[in-house]
Write a structure and sequence with these properties.
The protein starts with a strand and ends with a helix. By secondary structure, the protein is of the alpha/beta class. About 55% of the residues are buried. Helix 8 packs antiparallel against helix 11 and helix 11 runs parallel beside helix 15. The chain has 16 helices and 19 strands. The protein folds into two domains: about 160 residues, 3-Layer(aba) Sandwich (Leucine Aminopeptidase, subunit E, domain 1), CATH 3.40.220; about 300 residues, Aminopeptidase (3-Layer(aba) Sandwich).
Length: about 500
């Protein structure tokens, strides 16, 4: 998809469609793109808004066919809600909804006319929204339901905003593509190969640990999960060295279970069907690292992605097994479907050993988090309130929903084992997202750490107005926002 700036009269742009924006309850400003189209069409937009046919609500999309005085055959009017409440979330969703509507048909080119008074970060979000909205999950359909545009022409946007927006959009779509691919295409080795390509394209340093190296590095918890699969595990280490050699390092860790059958604690078919998405944490970290590398951000980042399949075979790890993690802690297995926390346990230790001074891990870890917060909100759990506040602030700025859950010491009592140091599940159904986080806390020591359970927002069964169903790329932008504002 080619993006370029064409600051010309929106009534004269030669494109298959022109997108303009309007605010709720406000007549189009005469100098805005919507105002120019309104004037050329004899006040059509004003009349539609006066009659409440167009109200300007966020995500409201209205298509005008062949308006008088406009070269393009159609104009798409995207509502952006109340002008005083415009933020990145609204711009992303509103422009995404307009793009998704247009992408239902093949279009060679579209034009997006946004308001020049929008701040740079809101302009960036608009670019991401358009680029995400026109890309779907129909990777293997002969006839696509969602058709990316060949060219997007932008009016009213700053050069820097378009450049950064394109980087963010490509990174979100990278994550979405990886998560949408079936497990036959994305497995530990192929994911690692994709990471190698990203590193080569962006100048990131990369190291890949194979099964022998993982054993040498004493990653016993991760290796146990991988035992049941014919696909050998991998651990990917990516490093961005944008700061001084002795500067603090941000650590990003992603769960990469490329398919989760549940192991011997086998999932039912309905619960297993979308488990190709169980590597979304690793996919999110890779997408964020691509953006961090391309933007050449002035900080040091180390990223760790633990990659396994959780399958069933004669060599599968078993209930009652006791695993020794990289830091020497022993874990009694009570449920082989609580495998992601075992992969993350070793991966977090690796990140710390690689010099991470602050940590964020991301994982589609628990259904319990979805029960607590629904499918649109990620759960945050942390051992350091100031660091957690930083992550919350970054997510909020991007318009990505998160909510902090408690980490009281009482939850830690629920994962104590009579046989080993800890067990990999709590007691029954209660507090499942938190007891999983309490296990992870055993592997971060005193390093400030935030755990993001993204099980809900990472993958949607049904489409939204602004994005197709399937992978969403949730929190790629949050991680990049943390990196852009890094101040340890």
């Amino acid at each position: 998809m080619k993006h370029s700036i064409h600051n010309q009269d929106p009534t004269k742009i030669e494109a298959d469609a022109v997108i303009v924006t309007v605010s709720k309850g406000k007549a189009p400003d005469a100098k805005s793109a919507a105002g120019q189209i309104d004037r050329a069409s004899g006040g059509l937009l004003s009349r539609l808004m006066e009659s409440k046919e167009i109200e300007g609500d966020s995500d409201e999309i209205t298509t005008l066919w062949g308006p008088q005085g406009v070269t393009s055959p159609q104009v798409v009017v995207a509502g952006t809600g109340e002008a005083t409440k415009l933020d990145r979330r609204t711009a992303y969703r509103s422009l995404g909804a307009a793009a998704r509507q247009l992408a239902k048909k093949k279009r060679s080119s579209i034009a997006c006319c946004i308001e020049p008074h929008w701040s740079t970060d809101i302009q960036e979000a608009a670019v991401v929204g358009v680029s995400v909205g026109c890309v779907g999950q129909d990777l293997y359909r002969a006839e696509k339901k969602t058709n990316p545009f060949d060219q997007v022409l932008w009016a009213g946007i700053a050069d820097d905003a378009l450049a950064v927006g394109r980087v963010l959009a490509d990174s979100v779509n990278l994550t979405r593509h990886l998560v949408n691919e079936p497990a036959a295409a994305v497995y530990p080795e192929s994911f690692a190969e994709r990471a190698e390509a990203v590193a080569a394209e962006t100048g990131l340093q990369i190291e890949i640990w194979d099964e022998a190296k993982l054993a040498q590095e004493k990653c016993g918890a991760l290796l146990a999960v991988a035992r049941g699969s014919d696909r050998p595990p991998r651990l990917v280490l990516l490093r961005h060295q944008g700061g001084d050699d002795d500067a603090p390092t941000l650590g990003l860790v992603g769960k990469g279970v490329t398919f989760d059958s549940g192991g011997l604690s086998l999932k039912p078919s309905d619960g297993m069907f979308d488990m190709k998405c169980d590597m979304a944490g690793a996919g999110t970290v890779l997408g964020a690292m691509q953006a961090i590398g391309q933007l050449r951000l002035p900080l040091n980042v180390v990223a760790v992605m633990g990659l396994v399949e959780n399958m069933v075979s004669g060599d599968s790890y078993k209930l009652g097994d006791v695993l020794t993690a990289r830091n020497g802690k022993t874990i009694e297995v009570h449920n082989t479907d609580a495998e992601g926390r075992l992969v993350l346990a070793d991966s977090l230790c690796v990140a710390i050993d690689q010099g991470a001074d602050r940590l964020i891990d991301l994982a589609t870890l628990t259904g319990a988090c979805m029960v607590a917060l629904g499918i649109d909100v990620s759960g945050l759990m942390a051992n350091d309130q100031q660091w957690c506040d930083t992550v919350v602030s970054s997510a909020s700025a991007c318009g990505e929903r998160v909510w902090q859950l408690p980490m009281f010491s009482e939850y830690g009592e629920l994962i104590k084992s009579d046989v080993a140091d800890i067990k990999n599940v709590g007691q029954g159904r209660w507090g499942g997202a938190i007891t999983a986080a309490k296990l992870l806390e055993e592997f971060v020591g005193d390093v400030p750490w935030v755990h993001m359970d993204i099980a809900g927002p990472a993958f949607h069964d049904k489409p939204k107005a602004w994005i197709d169903g399937g992978a969403t790329g949730a929190h790629v932008r949050t991680l990049v926002e943390v990196a852009r504002n890094w101040s340890p």
